[in-house]
Amino acid sequence: xxxxxxxxxxxxxxxxxxxxxxxxxxxxxxxxxxxxxxxxxxxxxxxxxxxxxxxxxxxxxxxxxxxxxxxxxxxxxxxxxxxxxxxxxxxxxxxxxxxxxxxxxxxxxxxxxxxxxxxxxxxxxxxxxxxxxxxxxxxxxxxxxxxxxxxxxxxxxxxxxxxxxxxxxxxxxxxxxxxxxxxxxxxxxxxxxxxxxxxxxxxxxxxxxxxxxxxxxxxxxxxxxxxxxxxxxxxxxxxxxxxxxxxxxxxxxxxxxxxxxxxxxxxxxxxxxxxxxxxxxxxxxxxxxxxxxxxxxxxxxxxxxxxxxxxxxxxxxxxxxxxxxxxxxxxxxxxxxxxxxxxxxxxxxxxxxxxxxxxxxxxxxxxxxxxxxxxxxxxxxxxxxxxxxxxxxxxxxxxxxxxxxxxxxxxxxxxxxxxxxxxxxxxxxxxxxxxxxxxxxxxxx
Length: 445
Fold this sequence. Notes:
alpha+beta
């Protein structure tokens, strides 16, 4: 191994040598071809040449791209805000079910009659309250132990129970006479008699008991005519119960009639062809038949009401109203327009109505079912604008500079504002090809 040891001064001299390279060869490889010495100036020169060549290549590419972009990729967008006019007007129109044609001059629009029959029912709650009194009732056997002769009893004959409760016979009755046997002993005759308590109340609900006939008091018959019950006398009460009132029925009539009307209208709308409309004032409802499950004064917590009726209506299309409104606006503008309002007549076409701006209101005036006609008052407003002939504008601005186009559009009385965007950014003219020119009509404020 060979070691080269340099002093600091010698080392510095070697590092400061910029114009040549010292070739230190190993003795063992001294016979090999000599390595050429390349100066630093030569290397720097070559680098400078490469950089210069690269610069020109990049420049050529950029210029080519600019040219290519201008001729093939350039595009223009022209956005125009036209002058708009808001028109408000009123008209009276006639909806005629016998005329299927739209008649702008006579202000007649087609209409159609729709009909529907329907039955609806609804349950209602009774609001009345009443005191309900019930008298106890029962059957007793009345005995004749007085003689073998029958005894007649009139209706309402009084019977008093052993508890002192007064009852009356519901009907007249005859008590058969008793029968004597061979020893002269009398077997009483008897008959079942329905009795009703003299007063209402639970206190007259009694069990098995015996009964006397106060009408015989003070006579021998008093102890010989008597009654017995073999089943309880029951049913007596005094309580509050729900009751249907006339107010309940009147309220139910209104609600069930309105329900009939609403459901009939819903069915009519389902039957209607798309876009047909109806006004409540144009509906004719025939006589409504209403039946109640309980009459006024009846005891019930609730009751049912049923309504039957027939409905017919003259309907019209909103589409026809809108077309009439737009046609009326265009007609009124045409009558008042002047040809000198436009500097370039070829650039602008007919006046148009902005559909989204149309506001329409209609009011019922009259209806004649015999002739099948409905009269309405219309109030409507809308924004109008001139139709832009895009082909004409495209031809007028193609190849023009921005300042020329802005000047041209600024001279147009129908142009409120304009905006032009060119792409790429370095392009200064609108492309020649119409296909590369996009024209937008902006109707927003």
